[in-house]
Specification:
Order of helices and strands: HHHHH
Number of strands: 0
Strand content: under 5%
Radius of gyration: 25 Å
Shape: rod-shaped
Length: 90
């Protein structure tokens, strides 16, 4: 006697999902904002190395050390010179 094989159940049906599929986009978007947070700070402060800070976030931001380095760099002095008219004359 030959027994009929039962159809294979797809893996998606076996593993229950705790979160809805839209959660992937929400958490992914939050992750991107957090990853590039130092670059956003640098852009808002007018830092002259904003692009370099953004590249550091892109390539090394996934490591804690790289992200912290970019954050400290973005909070460091902007490097902009003070206008001549505001300098005190002696």
């Amino acid at each position: 006697m030959i027994l009929a094989e039962e159809p294979a159940i797809p893996a998606a049906d076996i593993t229950p999902s705790i979160l809805p599929p839209e959660a992937f986009w929400v958490f992914g978007g939050i992750g991107v904002v957090v990853l590039f947070f130092p670059a956003f700070i640098a852009a808002l402060r007018g830092h002259r190395s904003t692009l370099a800070i953004g590249a550091t976030c892109l390539f090394f931001g996934w490591t804690v050390i790289g992200w912290l380095l970019a954050l400290v760099w973005s909070l460091a002095s902007t490097g902009r010179a003070e206008p001549v008219s505001r300098r005190r004359r002696r």
